[in-house]
Design a protein that fits this description.
This protein has 321 residues and is of the alpha/beta class. It has a single domain, classed as Metal-dependent hydrolases (TIM Barrel). Helices cover 43% and strands 12% of the residues. The protein has 13 helices and eight strands. Strands 1-2-3-4-5-6-7-8 form an eight-stranded parallel β-sheet. β2 (58-65), α4 (76-96) and β3 (101-105) form a beta-alpha-beta unit. α3 (47-56) runs parallel beside α12, α4 packs parallel to α5 (112-124) and α5 (112-124) runs parallel beside α6 (148-157). It is globular, with a radius of gyration of 19 Å. The relative contact order is 0.14. The structure holds manganese (II) ion. Residues 11, 13, 164, 216, 284 line the site of manganese (II) ion. Manganese (II) ion (MN) is lined by residues 11, 13, 164, 216, 284.
Length: 321
């Protein structure tokens, strides 16, 4: 571990015992043997997880309940109870490895008040570093002004929200008949990038300028479209007013991780668009290869100063580690 560059990873998942498997519709397409292995790795906080971290030079992970988590639970009160139980469970695991693990809160977003209460408890009482939410809640998107108390609490607590992918409410017509494009291949990216753009164009970052949202998967493609957002929004604003050009929010209020995209040209493009302080290393454990992600970031053609920022410096600054 000493010979490898120090890394902090931010999209690293676990599963809470007793939480229903809301991903059933998706996982039934996966080979049962692979599923068994994923389940074993998701529920392990010791042997295999820490060994993989050590081998890859990952000093510290912020852990999050695997998707869709309580975003898949219809009943708001049940979702709240599961979120609390999941956060308490994660806090116990972190307490056993406090120098290696931090936590992102699981939040039921069914009502903003519930989310504020549990976010506050998780950060203030459990010491969590922010929250990870798996997209919309049955079609509710968080640019809706009713969620302003949530953004206000996030801003006041000084912690980021990791906006993690989710299935769309309904399969987009363009993806019908193409299950190979659903989920992580493409469907989640469209859904999650669109949600992030709703936050941006919905004025969330104007109302709460210190809010930071983290997107995985090289920013779900958004860094590469910054120029076009400015160019077209200037021509077709449709009455929407923003305090800054759209591009300027992407890289300041919206930060990204490298999870699941181990491509050097994409990394250089993202850094070129947003600057070296907006990009952070992550793996997406256990769905992606820790070894591959570590090798990728070590070999990428970056200045050493930039590599240090991406591997750990930015995360240290943003999470106060
Ligand atoms: Mn993930």
């Amino acid at each position: 571990m000493d010979t490898r560059i120090r890394k902090i990873a931010l999209e690293e998942h676990f599963s809470t015992p007793g939480l229903p498997n809301y991903a059933k519709a998706f996982t039934r397409h996966i080979d049962p043997e692979i599923l068994r292995d994923l389940a074993a790795r998701l529920s392990d906080f010791d042997d295999r997880r820490i060994q993989e971290m050590d081998q890859a030079g990952i000093a510290y992970c912020i852990l999050s309940q695997t998707g869709p988590s309580v975003q898949g639970e219809q009943d708001a009160r049940q979702a709240m109870a599961y979120a609390q139980a999941s956060n308490d469970f994660l806090a116990q695991q972190i307490a056993r490895h406090p120098t290696r693990f931090g936590g992102f809160a699981t939040l039921a977003m069914h009502t903003p008040q519930q989310a504020v209460g549990e976010l506050t408890r998780a950060v203030k009482q459990l010491g969590f570093k922010g929250a990870l939410v798996n997209g919309h809640t049955f079609g509710a998107y968080y640019d809706d002004p009713s969620y302003d108390p949530f953004w206000e609490a996030l801003q006041d607590l000084g912690v980021p929200l990791y906006l993690h992918p989710a299935d769309a409410v309904a399969t987009p017509r363009a993806l019908e008949g193409h299950p190979e494009l659903a989920g992580a291949t493409w469907g989640w990216q469209v859904e999650t990038a669109s949600h992030a753009l709703r936050l941006l164009f919905g004025g969330v970052f104007d109302r709460f300028p210190r809010v930071r949202v983290i997107l995985g998967h090289m920013g779900e493609g958004l860094p590469f479209m910054r120029w076009r957002f400015d160019s077209r929004f200037a021509v077709y604003p449709h009455g929407v007013r923003l305090q800054r050009p759209p591009s300027s929010y992407i890289g300041t209020n919206i930060l990204i991780t490298t999870s699941g995209v181990c491509s050097a040209p994409a990394l250089l493009g993202a850094i070129g668009e947003m600057g070296p302080e907006a990009v952070m290393f992550s793996v997406d454990y256990p769905y992606e290869s820790t070894a591959l992600a570590a090798e990728f970031i070590e070999q990428a053609p970056l200045d050493e100063e930039v590599r240090q920022l991406v591997c750990h410096g930015n995360a240290q600054r943003i999470f106060g580690l």
